[in-house]
Structure formats: structure tokens, C-alpha cells
Design goal:
This protein has 366 residues and is α+β, with helices and mostly antiparallel strands. 28% of the residues lie in helices and 25% in strands. It has a four-stranded mixed β-sheet. A hairpin with a 2-residue loop joins strand 12 (272-278) and strand 13. The structure holds zinc ion (ZN) (2 copies).
Length: 366
């Protein structure tokens, strides 16, 4: 007597596709041969559950089964199913529920993307849209790789579902099976559009959040947005590596940001408000008159923002920029004019040593 597929799955004849799927998952996991090694009874039940699912999950087969199930020669849909095919069916439907090595083969590959942002954007945090061409789920088959109403995947006959083939000789290595490309499964009725891959190259777009204080080389992972899996295996992840465009003036040291502030002689002498670059644009900073190279000013809270607590500071290091006479050329009116200004400055300094007291003391030529 043929098995009653509904009874085997413990569902009633009006069960929805979803109820059937849930019952199959629960029972297949409970009787899985990997959990009951050398238990022929569990194996027999596992195969029966798998056959019942192949029939009841396919609307055409289920309808045929429903109309004939009470007749003496009922359509059972019941091709014999070996244990390997039954195992493969489970992972084709639910991915690698038992967490075995097979998972690695069927899971989609990760997609890697390098996103370059400005230094200031990484410090302050931002959100960016990225676009690229990559494999996404085939819209025709929904990623299954199979034609609508197809017969489901079949164990690869060349490698017997193992996905690898051992070469000739005792020490020969195992290599990926060329027929099933290491998957152990073959589509009997592959989707025409994606030829069974379940995926197609397409333009994809994502928004990536870059949290404040992101360091160069940081990785953002967008779960399950990598390449689609094979035969129901889960998708890979999208891994976005953050690359920083250097800032011409600003550099980071821990939670602080450093900047060299270049001042002309007259600016340094007078002091006053001078624009200073920061990650949030220029700010006017009060420079004390008579400031020298090496002086440091601290802009509180202008450093790296923190999730909790006080942000870092910006440290401003003053450097006096010495005029470069060579920029005016070897001769000419401009050069002569500037030489004259310098001569005047020397003359004035000689009569007012207090203007540059340390220089005067050291040189002792006043
Ligand atoms: Zn397809
Ligand atoms: Zn194979």
C-alpha cells in the first residue's frame, strides 16, 4: 500500500503550501540521517517525508495526487528517492539547516566594494549610496534556478552528489565535479533566463551608513546582500571597505585632530581672528599677538565625535611661514621692493631690540 503523503507529513488534506513546508522542515530535521546514523527506521521515515514533500509542494503533482489518492492505483508521485537526494532536497529548500560543510558550496559569494569618502565625512559620519553591477536574484525564477513547475534538482550522477571527484590512484586529490560545478545537484528543468544559476547580473544600489569616527580600512557588512546562493543556499554578504581621501590640512591622532596653522610674520605679530580648517568647515580662532612657531592652541570638542561622552579636540600648531624671496625671481622691481621692506624691518628691529627679545639676546649684536 502506497504511503499517504498527508499522513506522513501530519497535515490535513486542506493544508496550505506554507503548512506543508513547515511540517516538512520539522519532520525532516527530526529524522535526518545525519542525526540518526545507522538508524534504518529514521532513514526510511526521512525518505518518505521527502517524497511526500516533493508531491505536495508541487501544485500540479498535488492536484493529481488528490484526485487519485483513494483509488487502488493511486498516483503517488513516488519515484524512489535515495537518502542523498532526500538530503539535497532539504538543503535545496531550506539551505544548510544542519550547518554542514556543504553550506560553503551553496551559499552565495560575498561581494566586496571599496567606498572612498572624504576625511571629514568619515570623522563626522555620513550615509552614502553605492551602485555597482553584480549578481542579484533572477526575477524569473525568484532565485531558485528552476523553471516554474519544474521537477526539482537532482543529485549529480557523476559525483553522486558529493560535489567532488577523486582522481585515479590512492593519493590522487579530490577536485570539484565539473558537471555540477561542485554543487552535487543538477537542475532537471533550469530556468531559461538564468540557465539555472538563480542569479543575473544587474545594477544594484545600497545606502551605506558610515558612523562617526570611522577609521580607514573599516568594513561595513550588509547581511545577505551578496551573490545569491545555489539551490536554495543563502546569499553571501555585501562587504564594504571604507577608504579615506586624505585631507590637505587635517590629520587624525586617536580622538584628536591636528592641523598646522601657517601664519605670515605680520599675522603672527598682530594676532587676532584667523580662519582655521576643521572637519566641519573653517572656524575663526583668536590667535594671541606675538605668537611663535610651535605654539599650540586647543579647540575643545572639534575632534572626533564620540557615541558616548566628550568628543576629541582639535590641536592647532602654529608655524610662521618665512617669505621666500626666490618666488619673486632673481631681480626685478618686485624683488627690489621687498628687499627694501626687509632692510627697513632690520633697521627698525636694531633700534627696538624688545620686538624680538630672544633673538636679540642670543645674537648679542644690538
Ligand atoms: Zn532564473
Ligand atoms: Zn557533480
Amino acid at each position: 500500500m502506497a504511503q499517504d503523503h498527508y499522513a506522513v507529513l501530519g497535515v490535513d488534506a486542506k493544508a496550505s503550501a506554507d503548512e506543508i513546508k513547515r511540517a516538512y522542515r520539522r519532520l525532516a530535521l527530526a529524522t535526518h540521517p545525519d542525526r540518526h546514523p545507522d538508524d534504518p527506521e529514521a532513514e526510511e521515515r526521512f525518505r518518505g517525508i521527502s517524497i511526500a514533500y516533493t508531491v505536495l509542494s508541487d501544485p500540479a503533482k498535488r492536484a493529481r495526487y488528490d484526485t487519485t489518492r483513494h483509488l487502488p492505483e493511486a498516483f503517488t508521485g513516488g519515484q524512489e528517492m535515495n537518502v542523498q537526494t532526500a538530503k539535497d532536497l532539504l538543503s535545496a529548500v531550506f539551505g544548510d539547516v544542519l550547518g554542514r560543510q556543504r553550506r560553503q558550496r551553496k551559499r552565495g559569494r560575498d561581494i566586496r566594494y571599496t567606498l572612498t569618502v572624504d576625511f571629514a565625512e568619515a570623522i563626522l559620519g555620513t550615509e552614502k549610496e553605492i551602485r555597482f553591477e553584480a549578481l542579484g536574484p533572477c526575477s524569473t525564477c525568484g532565485g531558485s534556478g528552476e523553471k516554474a513547475g519544474g521537477r526539482g534538482p537532482q543529485t549529480c550522477s557523476l559525483c553522486s552528489g558529493r560535489g567532488e571527484i577523486k582522481g585515479e590512484g590512492f593519493f590522487a586529490p579530490w577536485t570539484a565535479c565539473g558537471r555540477c560545478r561542485g554543487m552535487g545537484l543538477i537542475h532537471q528543468d533550469p530556468c531559461d533566463r538564468c540557465r539555472g544559476r538563480g542569479a543575473r547580473r544587474e545594477s544594484r544600489a545600497f545606502r551605506v551608513r558610515i558612523p562617526p569616527g570611522t577609521e580607514p580600512g573599516a568594513e561595513r557588512i550588509v547581511r545577505e546582500q551578496g551573490e545569491p546562493g545555489y539551490f536554495g543556499g543563502g546569499p553571501g554578504n555585501l562587504r564594504v571597505t571604507i577608504n579615506l581621501r586624505d585631507d590637505p590640512w587635517l590629520r587624525r591622532d586617536g580622538d584628536d585632530i591636528h592641523v598646522d596653522l601657517w601664519l605670515s610674520l605680520s599675522e603672527a605679530a598682530r594676532g587676532g581672528k584667523i580662519p582655521v580648517p576643521t572637519v566641519s568647515g573653517e572656524v575663526m580662532v583668536e590667535i594671541p599677538p606675538g605668537v611663535s612657531t610651535g605654539a599650540k592652541l586647543r579647540l575643545r570638542g572639534k575632534g572626533v565625535p564620540q557615541e558616548k561622552g566628550r568628543p576629541g579636540d582639535q590641536i592647532v600648531s602654529v608655524i610662521l611661514e618665512t617669505p621666500r624671496l626666490d618666488a619673486l625671481g632673481g631681480s626685478g622691481a618686485a624683488r627690489a621692493e621687498f628687499e627694501e621692506l626687509l632692510a627697513k624691518l632690520d633697521e627698525f628691529s636694531a633700534t627696538h631690540p624688545g620686538l624680538v627679545p630672544r633673538r636679540s639676546a642670543q645674537r648679542d649684536d644690538g
